[in-house]
Structures are given as C-alpha cells and as structure tokens.
Structure prediction request, 856 residues.
Amino acid sequence: MKKLDLLTLGDELLLGLRPNAHLDYLGGEFARHGLPLRRNIVVGDAPADIEAAFRDAWQSADVIVTTGGLGPTSDDNTREAIAQVLGLPLEFDPAVEAAIVERFARSGRRINDLDRKQCYRPRGAQPLRNRAGTAPGIYLEKDGKILVMLPGPANELWPMFESEVLPRLQTAGVLSSGEAYLQLRTAGVPELHVEQRIRPIVDKYPGLGLAFCAHQGVVDVRIAPAARDFGPTQLQAIGDEMSAALGEDFVCFGHATLAQVVLDELRARAATLAVAESCTGGLLASALTDIPGASKIFLGGVVSYTDDAKLQMLDVPESLLDQHGPVSAETAVAMVTGAAERFGADYALSVTGLAGPEGGTKELPVGTVFLGYSSPVGAWSRKMFFSGDRLTVKARTVNAALDWMRRKLLKYKVAELHATGVGREAKP
Amino acid sequence: MKKLDLLTLGDELLLGLRPNAHLDYLGGEFARHGLPLRRNIVVGDAPADIEAAFRDAWQSADVIVTTGGLGPTSDDNTREAIAQVLGLPLEFDPAVEAAIVERFARSGRRINDLDRKQCYRPRGAQPLRNRAGTAPGIYLEKDGKILVMLPGPANELWPMFESEVLPRLQTAGVLSSGEAYLQLRTAGVPELHVEQRIRPIVDKYPGLGLAFCAHQGVVDVRIAPAARDFGPTQLQAIGDEMSAALGEDFVCFGHATLAQVVLDELRARAATLAVAESCTGGLLASALTDIPGASKIFLGGVVSYTDDAKLQMLDVPESLLDQHGPVSAETAVAMVTGAAERFGADYALSVTGLAGPEGGTKELPVGTVFLGYSSPVGAWSRKMFFSGDRLTVKARTVNAALDWMRRKLLKYKVAELHATGVGREAKP
Prediction:
C-alpha cells in the first residue's frame, strides 16, 4: 500500500485558533477511497518549517498532500518552499493570470504583483482548477511520487479535491473508484456492547479491519479490507450480518444523523413533527433544521426556559407544575402534548431536565433529563441521566431523544402508518 | 525559544472519524503561556509509526507532548514504543496498581493483566495523576529535554494538563505563569477591515506579533510579544489602543461568545430576552442556552417553521404574511413583537430567511435574511445576505443577529437602563 502524508500548513492551527478540519475531511475521503493517511503533519507558515516538513515527507512517503499557503499574501510561502526542496524552478502561467484578471473584473478590482504569485508553479506540474477562488491547486508526478497542493480555504479545497484531485488519483491507480469501507452507525449503547455483539462476526472473517468511534451516544463501526481483500459485495454482506446482530441499536449504514433518520421515517409516513425543549434550549430543533428539506416535516418548536413559558406557550397546567415540578415525567408528557396540539403536529418530542452547572439537587442531580414523545397512538415519557458538562448534556440529550423516537417509530411502524393514513404496511 | 512538538496518536484521527481536538486545546494553552507549538504530528496506533514519529521529535525538539495510547487495550502502544526509543526499561509502580484496584472496587470490577499495563512507566519518569480515569500520565526530564505523555480521553487530559502539567512546565521555566498574548474579538467586519484599522498601531510597536482568525462573521486578533518583549501591562495598553480604533466593532478581550456578551449586557439591565426563529431553526436559542446561567435572562423562544406557526405561536397577522410574505422586514418585526409579548420579555430577537439549498427566488435568493429586534424603546428590522451552505447561513445569521443586538444595546445603553428601571447611568 502507498504511503500517504498530509501536510496542513498554518500558524492559526498550531495556536489553537482554528480546528484542523482539513484532516477530518481529507482523512475521511482518503480512507473512503482505500488509502488511509499514514501521517498528518501540522506546521506554521515559516518557509524553513515548511521546507523541513516537506523534505521529510517527500523522502519517506509516496503521495504527499499539502493544504494552505497558496494565496497572495506575505504569509503564503508553500509554493516557493516546496519548489526549493524539489529543486524545480517556478514558471509563470499566463492562463492563470488571465483567469484572475477576469475574476477580478467582475468586482472592478485590478490584479497586482502580489496576486501574480498565484500564477507560478513548479516546472512540470499541472494546475488544479479553483472554482471558488483565485489560487489554483498544483499536481505533480515526479520520481514515482505524487504531490498535490491544495488551497487553505475549505470552500475552495472541497470542490477542488472532488472534481480535480480524486479523478487524477483514481486514474493513477492510487485510489479506488468505489467506497473502500462500510460504516455502521449505532446509537444508545456503549462501544463495549457494540463490540461484544459484532465480535463473533469479525472473528469469522480474518483480515477484516475494524475501527470504532463514539460521539455523544452514537457509536460508528467502520469495516474495511485490511490484511485480506474483501470486495464491496462481501463487505456489504458482512455489514448486513452485523446490522442483524445489532438489532434496533443499528441506525443506518453511512453517515446520516439521527435527525435525518427520524425525518426520513416521518417523510415515509407523510407525517409532521414539533418539539418542546427546556434544557436542550433549541439544540433539538436546530439538529432537525440542519437537514435540507426539514421544512416539509418539521413545523416548529418552543423553547420554554421558564415555568411561565411552559404554561403560556405549551399549556402545561400550573397545578401539574406545582405538584410535580418542571423536571418530571408529568411535565415532559404535558409539554409534548402541548407542542403537538399547538403546532397541529402528528408527532412531537419534548425535553426537560438540568444541563447544569447549577440547579441540581439530591433527588434531581445535574444531568437528569425527562423525555416526552407523542404519536398518533399515544404519549410516553422516559427518564435518563447524562454525566458531563452543560454542552455535553445538551448534545447527549438531543441524540437520546432522537434515538428514542427512532426506536418508537420502528416499533409502531405498521400501526402508525395506518393511523396516519399512509397505508397498511411499512415501506420496505 | 524552546522547540515544542505535539504528537497526537490514534487511527481514528487519520480516518477522519474524530476531530483532532487535542491540537486545538493544547495549541491554545501553550500559546497562551508563551510557547507556541512548532509542529503537530498525527500518527496511528501501530508501534512502528509511533516509534518513527517519536524518534524524529525527540531528536529535533526540546519539549515533546504525546496524547493517546496509554490505556489498557491492545491498540494502546505509546508507553512501550516510546520506552523502546529512549532505551529505558518500564518499571512497575504498585501505588498506581493500588489506585486502580480502589477505583474499580467502587463498581465491583476486578483488575486484570491488561489493566496492569497502566502501572508501568519508563525508569526515572514521574506519574501524572489522573482524576477522571485509570491511566496516569507520564512526565520525564532527560538529556535536557522534557517528555509529557497524556491520556487520549479529553475529560482525562484537560484536568491533568491544568493541574499536573502546567505547574511542572512553569517550574521548569518552559511556560510563563501569566497569559502571554492578548486576544481582541471583533464582529461584523471582514478581516481586511480589522487589519487596516489596527495596522497603524501595530506599526508603532516593532516586534509585536499579530495573528488573525475569522469564523462565521467574528474576527479574532491576537497580539503577543514576538521579536521583542512586551509585558502584560504594555500588551493591555496596546490592546486598549486597538479597541478604541475598532470602536463598536470591538466585542471584547478574550474568548466570550456574542451570546455571552449580549446576556451580560442584559444582566446589567436586569432585563429578559425571548427569540423567534425561522431559518436559524433553534440555533439562536441554542447559542444563548449554551451559556451557564442563561436561564436568569433568557425566557424562551419559538421556532416557527411554517406560516401557521408564525400565526398561532407569535400572532403574526395572516394579512401581513399574505401581503409581505414570510421572508420580509414586516414579518421579522411582527415575529419579534409577538415573541416579546408572548414571553413577556423586555427584549427580543427574530430571524426569518432562506437557509437553502432550495426555496430561493430572484428577488429573495438563498441566503437572504431579515432580522428583527425589539427593546423597551422600539422595534427594528434589518436585511442581510450570507453566502454559503445551509449550516453556514444558519451560523452566520445567529452571529449577525447577536452582534446587531450587541450594537443596539451599546447605542441605547443610557436610555434603556432608565427605561428598564435599573438606573440612569451605564455601569462602568
């Protein structure tokens, strides 16, 4: 297997000013196409640091990808530093200059000498077209190695990687054309339990690669060919075996969020959804509205951060609040019923709890959460507890609420499809 | 200046399964204490990869920090790989074993041989106490260099760094005891404009280090001693000069979010806040409720994702929706007035717009947003436009709404403090 190094360049990464999102994106893309990263090296903008890091990578790797430092400003040094290490002259490309002149003309701007830095590339390299900015990327094959230089801004890098880099690396035989791994997403169970359930299947297929990643109540399992080759069909068959073993803890193949999965289930029922939130404070509604097209299913929500808001906006009876308190199963059910009625929604979810850091008691410590769920066939509540800080409790509660709804939707699929008038049978 | 390398270990980072949050946290912490990272190297869990990366770092850096691979499982190889490179034997520490036995006893678990891996450390090293898990960190001074090995889980790493590592590195003279830089947060203006406004001040102080980071409408400026030494008092004086030059575009010194700044302003007025959201879909309420103690000021919000919800939950007149449409200045004002009245809030913010990807027209392209703001002295609307995908439009709209409110609160500080009955003068 080829050795692949990623060099992400920029002082702001080392200063903790900006997350290294290029590692996430490119690491995921390369793994998906069969060539996981061997290393990621982050260095600053100083030419000496870039040269040292690139010299080392060029000696020991087969494919080297760099990000950042291709622009016109004084801290953009990648082009010059790398040409120096490769011992290649930088050559001016009038076609790139013409493209910049044309791009600038639209906003009445004129090209200057700093901008012209972007028109140079090492002898023998190809330009990679930049649809969202001025600096082209650079692609070079030399001494049996491949160098790909990408611009720093994510909105320029993503489309360039997809339309210019992927096809070249597939043609060069470095990347596979299909997906090289299969991801199973699970929810509501710890990583250890997921592993125990799929371990007997993994043991049946020696040479199968396995990786886990847990985040806020969701556990992703990634299976891929490792010590032995598995074709896509066989990988999918193994994935199907695993999903059967995981039962209702299995959410989906791939990367769909729990919000996406729930909205898809509701779309199949031609049903609508509303939410009522206390401790998640809008994060549940925001997770749902992150999904394009959510407006066809999601009608809206109420963030009721006070007793008065629960009473005025969700018709939670004052006597119920007095008797059971705002953080209770009874209030969760009253909130969810109120949200469904107020918005005229077929389904609703509610959350009330204590995200902290203050406000906990012995009976109701910080992290205590009550969920409410209402469907055409009834209303339920559920008590849960999450440890962690305020933002963790918010995020885990949102995932728990959506996962609970997902399970309920699966369980009552036939009855509810009937009740909402879509049909008598669940869709395949 | 000492050379500092960070080695973050873990297959999941290279596969794009998990963001490299340790780089953000540790990069920020080290910069804050006067020693910015020189490099970050990310490699997987294979012992050969760890050995190669560590050998290189140990040769060329003065301080090396590693994260991950100290736990009990089979892919935890950091301790062994590094001891190998250093040529040091691993020694068993019965005190660590006793601590694990005691910790496990609470949950009725018994220690096994895999767990005992965590009781070993290279000869001459000190253990770093782990308050949140079983694997202690490792601290070693050798050949004039310093090695710090930290566990992978963030909830174990953060407190260990703060209470065990920082004091040791300060005693060793590697880190400063105070803050080594000053951050100015601005909002609502592009990086280029911020730079133009502070450039004359920067030019007055040769040797001053300057870094920018732009994120979703917020631009952070970080100033620090670089080629010349500046004490904390002088750094603050320069920062004060810059904040004066930035005028109302200056948000705060440090890291407070716009939500935090707005809530602090309202707290000073003993005033309350409600929100009404369409295209941001709960993200505005969630940004506000991310702040501990928000419940004392923020009463709640409505996510009105349909015309009917705007009518039923916010009293937006049907005739107004018919005449002007849901994405209009008139609707934004009706929503904000409705939210203030329904929740009985002194102040309110509203958002209506098109986050995309579908639903845009020639008159109202995707990215068009109307904001509404109401205070005890009036109600306003404002039209804005943001390019980018759905999540970008949501995030930029939330920042723009909060920043607009921040500016309004500054402008009407005296009048509103009077109107809300807190006092006649702004607090200092």
